[in-house]
Amino acid sequence: MSTTVNSIAPLQPLTATRPIRRKRKRTNEEKRREVIALLLDERLAEFSDRVLAQQAKVSAPYVGELRRILSKNILTVRITKRRGADGVLRNTSKIGKRFRVTPQQRELVLAAIHQGIWTIKELMEEANLSRPKVQFILDALVDADIVGTASRKTSTGGRPETLYYPVPNTPKK
Fold first, then answer.
1. Positive or negative, the Cα torsion across 48, 54, 60, 66?
2. Residue 48 contacts residue 89 (beta carbons within 8 Å)
3. Per DSSP, which regions of 116-167 are E strands?
4. Interval 98-123: pLDDT, tens
5. The pTM is what?
6. Same domain, 124 and 74
7. 71 shares its domain with 118
8. Cβ atoms within 10 Å, residue 150
9. Is the pLDDT higher at 12 or at 82?
């Protein structure tokens, strides 16, 4: 993978100040300070966790953890775009967000189950919702013991299909 000149240019001054070889192993505190310095630099904060981790010679999850801590406590503006190693700026505003399910959508899925529509594919069509959103609603209903699950073999012999059915003591809506 090639990197563009624009993506690497802001990182060059930092590499020039760092010695090429270290005589001793860095402490965790030194690593933390270096990552925080990268994250607080406005030019560098837009880079992805992986790029900053390579720069600081730490792991990407560690950079991500520090970024989350800083965004909660110190940084007032959440960076919604990140630049990867390829130099492309990507929108990251939806990362980590959960589905927003309205009560009407939940009731649509529950009503369809009470009508005898028990497969995810049929529920998607009936409620006019995406598969991940229907699965999210079903998981919540199963956790609340409003809906039960069962498996059945498909006619094609593929992997079993999950069926969702109303639990008997649930009032119909």
1. negative
2. no
3. 147-152, 161-166
4. 677 888 888 888 888 888 888 888 88
5. 0.46
6. no
7. no
8. 11
9. 82
